[in-house]
């Protein structure tokens, strides 16, 4: 927007004041977004209502920004360069998600994801055009780094116990829990370990983000000519490395050296040397504070022996200051001399890869020292030492990710060309999963894209990335010294995208928007011209058409996003009213308005269905039942795989005693939720009950049909339990999947009623050994003791324990034993 920037003066040749105003509007929006979005749980797209509202807010403001950009295009956009071509091609990405909606697995997930992809395209365009000049480039690169540093200190302050303080700082624009008053899960406990997550509530994505910020800080240190800038970034090296280690992310420890090797060849050889030197210095200094910081965190968050630790915080600040001073001294007195000497002596064509190659050798030695000996690893705190020692291909997280990827390929086989729409994995994974894990994310950005948009969408994504990185490499080679800060965008994008091969970082809308902002900014600044395209003669018309279409699209997306945001607020209002307001009509007023905007939103619909079922239970008024049933059927048309809606439909049958229809529905859904043991339980329970009704009606054929169906379902459970035995040794199965007490009780009851008391005993024996404080176990014990009495046996010890709980149990057992077949 501004053709040049020198010092603090803006070139007058840039055009009208209109473009200047538009430029600053976009700069202000992007800057505010970079500070606001992280504190909205980084806008995690968790495919549930809890995460939607801040995402809708980000959509509203982003499409307003896109409208501003579209107006700018009327003044400045020309179809003359590769970056202009990419400003058109980027829309193929959301288009692939729009096409995928034809075969969408979930209307809500697919629609939300399409909107998010539109947001990514908008950020790509913003990065492409507001960083064209040095001023925009300088502002955006600094905003990325400074906002990153804020996130780092936010996390560390929470680690050192200053949870109320950090919550006070951000509560006016972030969702803060009130009891206790804190940003939830900035520090998380998992499997007896403490993990730093800062704003992300997920340690691995935080680690991926930290990698980009850490490497960006190193880059600014070796590139900047101002000592103040170098000192600031050097000061942050220790806190960032410390934060990476406190995340306990094994993936980050593996990926960081790889990313470093990818970015080093694009830095001058003399700067590579200092880049690695400063990495080593900050890593060594980090070890000075690591053990004490780890111990303090445990005392605060797990042992609760401390509330805060100013001493620990000041220790980190002091070591960080020492790092800044050391780096400043080395750079001030050694950088130019050593740099000039190296540059003058090493002028080979591929000299830039010499140090990365040497680093690879040294890194291999480091890996040997870390894993092959105890020299280095013993310096680490036990929690981090344990994580590092478990880095191997036979650990649960690696094996489970392999299972995710194999299951994702199964989905791809069924939706090969255009995919199953945005959020397809979250909607379908239970149908294709190999074992009963719980993961609504594929843990791989590219595999998730394959599932959601098929081969066509994945090729579009890969094609765009290849095109963008190819243009950047050409531009970097031609103009190495121009806009040195621009390499930051490459570093951040590569860091996150490479780590996204093993995790779901891109499911955070903040991370996705940051990546696409960087992808656009990477190739901005010095556009490479396109060869003349004969089929495109009148470029002015293209400008007007494209800008006009962008205005229409941005207005449409702004209006629909606003509607979604308002609907989310209305649903929240309805939930609040339901806690205090007994009047159904008052609750329904905002709820119906929310449903008018999103008629098949499963959370909105489920809430209304529950209200109507409650009213039907109280009044027996058929209108409530009929409206609930109609809403279930309508919502399931758009959300056929929504587990909660399936439960609502099952309930709609059972409340009317339509048990055969309920059983048929469960049997139909079991293949789509083949590792959900509760469906097998319900199926066997209904088959048992329907068989008993047929027995009482003297219909032996129907009785045996239902009871045999119960055993068929049981055999399916046994086969799947057998399948779990084939899992690799280091892989956990996930959710419990086994023969439950309810299943054993129902099968034992069937065999008892059939007169097969020995068989009934076998089914009931294991369940009867449980705690008699559980009413379900007492029920099993009654049937078990009765089956023994039928065989002339007894378990006096169990009977005594049962009677001790309730003397009436003796009568219950006797009555069952005398039960007429």
Features of this protein?
2% strand, two-stranded antiparallel ribbon, mainly alpha, 821 residues
Quick recap of the structure?
This protein is mainly alpha-helical and 821 residues long. It has helices at residues 17-36, 49-76, 82-89, 92-100, 107-130, 134-159, 163-170, 203-223, 227-246, 250-263, 269-301, 310-345, 354-372, 382-389, 396-414, 424-432, 445-478, 487-499, 509-522, 539-580, 584-597, 602-619, 622-638, 643-654, 659-669, 677-696, 700-724, 741-753, 757-768, 775-790, 796-805, 809-817; strands at residues 5-6, 9-10, 177-178, 181-182, 187-190, 193-196.
Task: Summarize the structure in words.
The chain is mainly alpha-helical and 821 residues long. Among the domains are: 202-391, no CATH class; 740-821. The chain is 71% helix and 2% strand. The protein has 32 helices and 6 strands. The chain has helices at residues 17-36, 49-76, 82-89, 92-100, 107-130, 134-159, 163-170, 203-223, 227-246, 250-263, 269-301, 310-345, 354-372, 382-389, 396-414, 424-432, 445-478, 487-499, 509-522, 539-580, 584-597, 602-619, 622-638, 643-654, 659-669, 677-696, 700-724, 741-753, 757-768, 775-790, 796-805, 809-817, and strands at 5-6, 9-10, 177-178, 181-182, 187-190, 193-196. The strands form 3 sheets. The chain has a two-stranded antiparallel ribbon with strand order 1-2. Helix 4 packs antiparallel against helix 17 and helix 8 (203-223) runs antiparallel to helix 9. The chain is globular. The model is unreliable at 1-18 (pLDDT under 50).
């Amino acid at each position: 927007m501004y053709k040049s920037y020198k010092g603090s003066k803006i070139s007058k040749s840039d055009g009208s004041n209109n473009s200047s105003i538009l430029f600053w509007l976009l700069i202000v929006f992007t800057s505010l977004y970079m500070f606001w979005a992280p504190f909205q749980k980084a806008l995690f797209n968790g495919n549930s209502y809890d995460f939607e509202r801040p995402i809708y807010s980000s959509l509203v403001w982003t499409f307003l920004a896109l409208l501003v950009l579209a107006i700018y295009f009327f003044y400045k956009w020309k179809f003359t360069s590769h970056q202009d071509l990419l400003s058109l091609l980027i829309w193929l990405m959301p288009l692939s998600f729009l096409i995928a909606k034809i075969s969408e697995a979930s209307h809500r997930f697919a629609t939300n994801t399409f909107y998010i992809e539109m947001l990514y395209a908008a950020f790509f365009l913003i990065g492409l055009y507001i960083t064209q000049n040095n001023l925009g480039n300088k502002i955006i690169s600094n905003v990325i780094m400074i906002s990153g540093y804020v996130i780092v200190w936010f996390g560390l302050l929470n680690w050192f116990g200053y949870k109320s303080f950090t919550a006070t700082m951000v509560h006016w624009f972030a969702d803060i829990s009130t009891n206790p008053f804190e940003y939830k899960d900035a520090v998380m406990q998992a499997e007896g370990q403490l993990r730093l997550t800062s704003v992300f509530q997920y340690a691995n994505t935080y680690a991926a983000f930290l990698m980009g910020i850490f490497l960006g800080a190193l880059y600014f240190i070796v590139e900047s000519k101002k000592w103040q800038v170098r000192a600031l970034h050097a000061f942050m090296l220790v806190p960032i490395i410390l934060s990476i280690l406190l995340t306990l992310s094994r993936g980050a420890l593996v990926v960081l050296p790889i990313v470093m090797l990818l970015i080093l060849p694009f830095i001058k050889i003399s700067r590579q040397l200092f880049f690695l030197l400063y990495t080593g210095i900050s890593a060594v200094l980090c070890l000075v504070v690591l053990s004490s910081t780890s111990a303090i965190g445990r005392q605060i968050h797990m042992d609760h022996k401390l509330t805060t630790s100013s001493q620990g915080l000041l220790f980190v600040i002091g070591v960080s200051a020492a790092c800044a001073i050391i780096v400043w001294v080395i750079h001030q007195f050694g950088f130019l001399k050593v740099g000039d000497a190296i540059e003058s002596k090493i002028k080979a064509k591929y000299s830039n890869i010499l140090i990365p190659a040497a680093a690879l050798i040294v890194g291999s030695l480091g890996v040997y020292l870390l894993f092959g000996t105890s020299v280095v690893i013993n310096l680490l705190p036990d929690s981090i030492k344990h994580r590092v020692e478990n880095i191997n291909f036979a650990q649960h997280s690696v094996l489970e990710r392999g299972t995710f990827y194999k299951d994702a390929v199964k989905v791809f086989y069924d939706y090969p060309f255009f995919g199953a729409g945005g959020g397809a994995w979250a909607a379908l994974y239970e149908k294709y999963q190999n074992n009963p894990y719980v993961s609504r994310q594929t843990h791989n950005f590219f595999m998730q894209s394959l599932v959601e948009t098929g081969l066509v969408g994945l090729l579009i994504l890969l094609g765009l990335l290849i095109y963008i990185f190819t243009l950047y490499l050409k531009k970097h080679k031609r103009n190495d010294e121009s806009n040195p800060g621009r390499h930051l965008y490459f570093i951040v994008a590569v860091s996150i995208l490479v780590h996204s091969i093993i995790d779901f970082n891109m499911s955070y809308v903040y991370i996705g928007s940051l990546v696409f902002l960087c992808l656009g900014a990477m190739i901005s600044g010095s556009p490479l011209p396109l060869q003349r395209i004969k089929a495109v003669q009148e470029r002015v018309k293209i400008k007007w058409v494209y800008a006009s279409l962008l205005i229409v699209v941005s207005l449409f997306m702004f209006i629909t996003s606003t509607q979604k945001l308002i609907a989310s607020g209305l649903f929240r209002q309805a939930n609040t009213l339901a806690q205090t307001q007994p009047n159904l009509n008052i609750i329904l007023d905002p709820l119906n308005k929310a449903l008018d905007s999103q008629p098949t939103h499963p959370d909105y619909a489920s809430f209304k269905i529950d209200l109507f079922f409650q009213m039907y239970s109280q009044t027996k008024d058929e209108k409530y039942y009929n409206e609930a049933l109609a809403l279930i059927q309508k919502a399931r048309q758009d959300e056929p795989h929504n587990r909660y809606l399936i439960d609502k439909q099952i309930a709609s049958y059972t409340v009317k005693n339509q048990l055969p229809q309920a059983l048929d529905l469960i049997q139909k859904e079991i293949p789509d939720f083949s590792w959900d043991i509760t469906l097998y339980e319900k199926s066997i329970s209904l088959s048992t009950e329907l068989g008993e009704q047929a027995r009482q009606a003297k219909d032996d054929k129907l009785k045996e049909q239902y009871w045999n169906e119960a055993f068929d379902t049981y055999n399916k459970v046994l086969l799947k339990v057998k399948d779990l035995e084939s899992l690799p040794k280091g892989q956990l199965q996930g959710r419990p999947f086994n023969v439950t007490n309810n299943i054993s009780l129902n099968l034992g009851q069937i065999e008892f009623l059939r007169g097969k008391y020995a068989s009934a005993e076998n089914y009931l024996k294991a369940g009867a050994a449980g705690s008699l404080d559980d009413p379900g176990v007492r029920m099993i014990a009654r049937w078990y003791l009765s089956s023994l009495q039928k065989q002339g046996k007894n378990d006096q010890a169990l009977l005594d324990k049962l009677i001790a709980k309730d003397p009436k149990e003796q009568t219950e057992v006797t009555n069952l034993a005398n039960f007429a077949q």
